[in-house]
Design a protein that fits this description.
- 53% of the residues lie in helices and 11% in strands.
- The protein has ten helices and five strands, in the order E-H-E-H-H-H-H-E-H-E-H-H-E-H-H.
- The protein is globular, with a radius of gyration of 17 Å.
- The N and C termini lie close together (7 Å).
Length: 207
């Protein structure tokens, strides 16, 4: 089996990041999330703070962004006035993700990676979700916030992730199961067993 990539899209508080890290440990392959911003910054020479600012969200009004020009795929030169635009920053990240998929086995969390790599045969794309009360409990324990605050964070985070995905994938629905090899509800069998299910699926698909 050659190199392969696992992409993970996830609802806030569902345990998607935890599952990615556990898979990284079990499979002995790197897991990229925040690290992608550093790689994109290093490749482009653009300050990492620019990538952080647009990390899975859009600057300004979603409707205004949606009505603006369609994202282009060609990277811009540093002298171009749109060099640090949302679109060019996304395209730089997409190029980094594509290079990782060509050269190593890894796990990529978020960043529309399932869409960016949709034509590649060495990719498994997953969507991780959980029941709302479990997501709320997870956020309360992890971030030390009230139940009300946890609900607000989940609502806002999932909204901007959905808008980000729709904008950069030409209107696709972030939660559409057709986008993924499979969707998993961590409330049903727990996060650890979800890891085992994914490992079994890797064997079925690639071995």
């Amino acid at each position: 089996m050659g190199n392969y990539v696992i992409t993970i899209a996830r609802g806030f508080g569902s345990g998607g990041k935890y599952i990615g890290k556990r898979l990284s440990e079990e499979l002995h392959i790197p897991c990229y999330e925040r690290q992608l911003l550093s790689l994109a910054s290093k490749q482009s020479g653009i300050d990492e703070s620019e990538f952080v600012e647009v990390d899975e969200k859009l600057r300004g009004s979603y409707l205004k962004n949606l009505l603006s020009k369609i994202p282009y795929s060609n990277l811009l030169e540093p002298q171009d006035k749109e060099f640090v635009s949302d679109i060019n920053l996304f395209n730089i990240q997409a190029e980094v993700i594509g290079e990782l998929a060509r050269t190593e086995s890894c796990i990529i969390i978020g960043k529309c990676a399932d869409y960016i790599l949709r034509e590649r045969r060495n990719v498994i794309s997953l969507y991780i979700e959980a029941e709302r009360e479990d997501c709320v409990r997870s956020i309360m324990e992890k971030m030390y916030v009230s139940e009300e605050r946890a609900n607000t964070l989940i609502r806002k985070t999932d909204k901007y992730r959905a808008n980000y995905y729709k904008y950069y994938t030409s209107g696709n629905d972030w939660r559409n199961p057709i986008n993924y090899d499979m969707t998993l509800n961590t409330s049903k069998i727990g996060r650890e067993r979800c890891v085992e299910v994914i490992k079994d699926y890797i064997k079925l698909k690639f071995q």
